[in-house]
Amino acid sequence: MVFVSIMTLFALGLAASVILAVASRVFYVKEDPRVEAVVEALPGANCGGCGFAGCEGYATAVVNDPSVPANKCCAGGAATSIAVGELTGKTVAEAEPLYALRRCDKLAGKVAPRYQYQGMPSCAAAALMRGGTDVCVYSCLGFGDCVQVCPFGAMEVRDGLACVDRSKCTGCGVCVAACPRGILELTPQRGRVAVYCNTRDKLRAVMDVCDVGCIKCGKCIKTCPAKAVRLEDNRIVIDHLLCLSYGPICEEACVSTCPRHILRSTRNLVALRAVADADDKAVRPPAPETAASDQSRPQPQA
Questions:
Q1: Which of 11-15, 66-70, 227-231, 237-241 has the lowest mean pLDDT?
Q2: Residue 56: left (phi > 0), alpha (psi -120 to 50), or beta?
Q3: What are residue 238's DSSP bridge partners?
Q4: Are 262 and 215 in contact (CB under 8 A)?
Q5: What is the maximum alpha-carbon separation in the chain?
Q6: How far is CA 70 from CA 91, 93, 144, 165, 224, in A?
Q7: Are strands 98-102 and 184-188 parallel, antiparallel or unpaired?
Q8: pLDDT of residue 29
Q9: Average of pLDDT values for 161-184?
Q10: By the 8 A CB rule, do 187 and 246 touch?
Q11: What is the pLDDT of residue 109?
């Protein structure tokens, strides 16, 4: 009886293996070797900034779908786009480099806390609690959901605000999707003006909670000669293509006319950031290795 059971199981296993072997032959799909080559050319960050599920998903799509361009990999930059274009035989159009802009400056606005939050340190969780932790319901919560998902280490939280390192940011947009309040938005690196307010409120409702919040006075819209500034979804937005095509001849009129300093020149911000980094390096104490090596050097005799 035991022998019969063993032989029956053996026969079933053998039959199943034969069926699987035949099925693998019949339904075998030959993989295009270019897919593997494209995967190797990609940076392997699997950030999802291209809109596909990882680098392999994009490689499969760009090889097999003629409508998928070769410049979708924001993490790899121009060099990766050229390599993918050569492997797939597609023309590479130059993509606009982007970075994540934080549309909030609650520190300058002196936005007060609404209550002491003691729950899970997560922006998504805090946003569900009575409108968030700040009196401004559109402000940056500062718990760092964007920092946790950034695959390039371009985000950090300083003084309760999410900060973006533009030199590391690739514009993949993962942090934008993770922000529950829409504080972060993708902006062209060449953009000359940035908007630092996310509120949808206006006038007194803004002035009561933030010293630098946008009150929707419309002066920036009326002043812009390129018609690149507009009100959209009760927020001031900039059409950067129009702004850049008009050129610097306007001298950032929208920036100078804004009474709340919501619109700021990115050129000034970059310069100020460089100065701050230089000052920080100047006052930073020497590294332990440097200090140790200095102590090990022979000192001159008196």
A1: 11-15
A2: alpha
A3: 229
A4: no
A5: 101
A6: 7, 8, 32, 26, 36
A7: antiparallel
A8: 65
A9: 94
A10: no
A11: 95
Helix ranges (H only) for 145-298 are: 145-149, 174-178, 204-207, 219-223, 240-246, 253-257, 266-283, 288-296
Tokens of 45: 């960050």
99-135 in b/e burial notation, b at 16+ Cβ within 10 A? bbbbbbbbeebebeebeebeeeeebeebbeeeebbbb
The answer for residues whose C-beta is within 8 angstroms of residue 121's C-beta and 6 or more apart is: 143, 144
DSSP letter assigned to residue 134: B
Distance separating alpha carbons of residues 104 and 181, to the nearest angstrom: 11
Structure tokens, 119: 């729950």
Strand 193-195 with 155-158, pairing: unpaired
- Residue 232, helix vs strand vs coil: strand
Q: Please state, as a whole number, how many other Cβ atoms lie within 10 Å of the Cβ of residue 96.
A: 15
For 288, the 3-state DSSP assignment is helix
Which amino acid is present at 192? R
What is the average pLDDT score of the chain?
85
Q: Which of 84, 54, 48 is nearest to 69 (CA)?
A: 84
Coil/strand/helix, residue 45:
coil
- Which uninterrupted H or E stretch holds 195? strand 193-195
